[in-house]
Design brief:
The structure holds 2 protein chains of 2 kinds. Chain A folds into 3 domains: 156 residues, Aconitase, domain 3 (2-Layer Sandwich), CATH 3.30.499; 120 residues, Aconitase, Domain 2 (3-Layer(aba) Sandwich); 179 residues, Aconitase, domain 3. Chain A has 15 helices and 19 strands. Chain A is an alpha/beta fold. Chain A is globular, with a radius of gyration of 21 Å. Chain B is an alpha/beta fold. Chain B has a single domain, classed as Aconitase, domain 4. Helix content of chain B is 33%, strand content 15%. In chain B, strands 4-3-2-1-5-6-7 form a 7-stranded mixed β-sheet. Classes of the chains: A alpha/beta, B alpha/beta. Chains A and B meet through helix 1, helix 2, helix 3, helix 5 and helix 10 of A and helix 4, helix 6, helix 7, helix 8 and helix 9 of B.
Chain lengths: 469, 205
């Protein structure tokens, strides 16, 4: 009998084209997603070498990062962003790559549209010039972010030179309590292993609490794998996965569907397979999480207090925490709950899908946002925007006093006009609280859509469990 | 890509853990469609006041540090976003190597493709170098990729790990794409087995 393998090893083994002597393996890529920010220099490289895109049929584009979330009837105000979006559309046309342009009714965040249209499937290798590509791992795909040189490599050859990653099992057992979400699982994991804890690893999320998650929730968990330093994060496919995918435009149809499901069922990790690392999280013990500092590992339970740098023995670690608290203008030992908030951002590839919007709306329905707070709700795609409007969620948001915007990365990356002012505090459902990430001088508390919506109502960091209906 | 040769240089010291690529180059500078001018935007928000004047206490504004080709940083350097603009900005500023106790994966891979050498040293060595630079900020280190050796100002040496293939590419000044393109036949054969399906897993399981 052959050696038991993890899903990570199965994905790797099935995509190795060859292993040249003295070099990393050539890994074949099934799906390459491109967007406007990390691709222009790669297309330019192809032109300089006179190369074409090897497999435009395995490549798909959308604009999202520098794309504004103002009404589509308005032009792109920033001339540099406008030139970038136009160059992206021109590149896709020139090289024959299917794409959703700025005016497309299907445009959206790259990690939202892949699953939405069934492009992302179990067993695939998926790459994109974006570190949150691990989102697609929720389908049992090996999905990871790459740099622009590698974008050019994949465009030209459909392959990457890769070394095999180590495997890291993240077992989340038990049941989430009311008000505790997928976002809180991943924030708790990163707080536990640190922002470098998963370096050189692919994470596999397993356990009863993971199995109980919907596909959208699984995407939230996998999305932030990079924030724990991991190359990728994934979840073995199951009936939840197949039900989500069935009937989507790019999913196999008819007999091909049955054959695909039969193949996908062989993917989960074999009994007795060994991982290089393991960590266990007790879902029952989790509380809503919130970050206090300037990286996603600086997170605490919402009932907790800001940690004290003087408790750390390592000098660089101590100075790093001191620097973070100075930037955030927070005092060690004080609780975060009750801290004033200027902006609430609900959106990003982490939390902009229907279930995220429904969660936020469940808190905001029949309530008003605090008049001192600007609240932005940004759907992940034009398709989600239409679905939310069909359900009346847009009216819940607008009646509560929030802005309902067009699809895009928005204030997660603050390169599209949506940004914090210096010194402002946000509660944000996005994935990064780095200094200036949401605008120069801006200060970010990362949290779930429930926590963000509850904080919008009170105008301070608020435990959403107080507002659950 | 230029050939990477042994060099000696002073060191700019930035002793902060988990420096993310948003600090190395803020996202608002990523709207460009070229690689030009990114060196001016390196560490922009740490380097400049709101009015555009240089922050006197930031290391890269120190006249001596401006000529440094080596950056000494804290643990897990380059975490966060996959933007290759980060190594582009560092090399355009003039850096040829970054020394840390560890690097984030994507940043490390991006750097090796741009002739920026990530030098990984043990904690003791990192602390020792910090100490020596504290007493003599102008002291020089030597970086030798061929022998994978870092030489500290006091003459003590330390071996650092580098992916063997990346090392060859850097020493010979060749890029990975040329190597990949030579495997067209193998890639074609793999695709023939996969029969054009989006999902190639069918042939391999």
């Amino acid at each position: 009998m052959s050696k038991p393998r993890t899903i990570i090893e199965k994905l790797w083994d099935s995509h190795v084209v060859c292993e040249p002597e003295g070099a990393p393996a050539l890994l074949y890529i099934d799906l390459h997603l491109v967007h406007e920010v990390t691709s222009p220099q790669a297309f330019e490289g192809l032109r300089q070498r006179g190369l074409k895109v090897r497999r435009p049929d395995k490549t798909f584009g959308t604009c999202d990062h520098s794309t504004p979330t103002t009404p589509r009837s308005l032009p792109i105000v920033d001339p540099i962003a406008k030139a970038q979006v136009e160059q992206f559309e021109k590149n896709c046309k020139e090289f024959g790559i299917p794409h959703f342009g700025f005016q497309s009714k299907r445009q959206g965040i790259v990690h939202v549209i892949g699953p939405e249209y069934g492009l992302t499937q179990p067993g695939m290798t998926v790459v994109c010039g974006d570190s949150h590509t691990a989102t697609h791992g929720a389908f049992g795909a090996l999905a990871f972010g790459i740099g622009t040189s590698q974008v050019e490599h994949v465009l030209a050859t459909q392959c990457l030179l890769q070394r095999k990653s180590r495997s890291f099992a993240v077992r989340v057992n038990g049941t989430l309590r009311p008000g505790v979400t997928a976002k809180d699982i991943i924030l708790a994991l990163i707080a536990k292993i640190g922002v470098g804890g998963g370096t050189e690893c692919v994470l596999e999320y397993t356990g009863s609490a993971i199995r109980a998650l919907s596909m959208e929730e699984r995407m939230t968990v996998c999305n932030m794998s990079i924030e724990g330093g991991a190359r990728a994060g994934l979840i073995a496919p199951d009936d939840t996965t197949y039900q989500f995918l069935h009937g989507r435009p790019f999913a196999p149809q008819g007999a091909a569907w049955d054959a695909a499901v039969a193949r996908w069922k062989q993917l989960p990790t074999d009994e007795g397979a060994v991982y290089d690392h393991e960590v266990t999280i007790d879902a029952d013990a989790l509380e809503p999480m919130i970050t206090f500092g300037t990286n996603p590992g600086m997170g605490i339970a919402i009932s907790g207090a800001v940690p004290d740098p003087s408790a750390l023995s390592d000098a660089v670690e101590r100075d790093t925490l001191k620097k973070a608290l100075a930037y955030m203008a927070l005092e060690a030992g004080k609780p975060l709950a009750g801290h004033p908030v200027d902006v609430v951002f609900i959106g990003s590839c982490t939390n902009s899908r229907m279930s995220d919007l429904r969660a936020a709306a469940s808190v905001l329905k029949g309530r008003k946002v605090n008049p001192k707070v600007r609240v932005m709700v940004v759907p992940g795609s034009q398709q989600i925007k239409r679905e939310a409007e069909a359900e009346g969620l847009d009216r819940v948001f607008v009646e509560a006093g929030a802005e309902w915007r067009e699809a895009g990365c928005s204030m997660c990356i603050a390169m599209n006009g949506d940004q914090l002012q210096p010194g402002q505090y946000s509660v944000s459902t996005s994935n990064r609280n780095f200094e200036g990430r949401q605008g120069k001088g801006g200060r970010t508390f990362l949290a779930s859509p429930l926590t963000a919506a509850a904080s919008a109502v009170t105008g301070t960091v608020t435990d959403p469990r107080k507002m659950l209906s | 890509m230029e050939k990477f040769t042994t060099f000696e240089s002073s060191v700019a010291v930035l002793p902060v853990d988990n420096i993310d690529t948003d600090q190395i180059i803020p996202a608002r500078f990523l709207k460009t469609i070229s690689k030009a001018g990114l060196g001016d935007q390196l560490f922009f928000d740490w380097r400049y006041e709101a009015d555009g004047s240089p922050k006197a206490d930031f290391v890269l504004n120190n006249a001596q540090a401006k000529s440094a080709q080596v950056l000494l940083a804290g643990d897990n350097f380059g975490c966060g976003s996959s933007r290759e603009h980060a190594p582009w900005a560092l090399t355009q500023f003039g850096f040829k190597a970054v020394i840390s106790t560890s690097f984030a994966d994507i940043f490390k891979g991006n750097s090796l493709k741009n002739s920026l050498l990530p030098v990984i040293v043990p904690r003791e060595m990192h602390a020792k170098l910090m100490e020596q630079l504290k007493s003599n900020p102008l002291a020089k280190v030597s970086v030798d990729l061929a022998s994978q050796t870092l030489t500290l100002p006091d003459g003590s040496t330390c071996q650092f790990p580098v992916d063997a293939f990346s090392r060859t590419c850097m020493l010979e000044g060749v890029d990975e794409l040329g190597f990949l393109l030579k495997h067209d036949i193998e890639i074609g054969a793999f695709e023939a087995r996969a029969q054009g399906a989006l999902n190639t897993l069918s042939v391999a399981l």
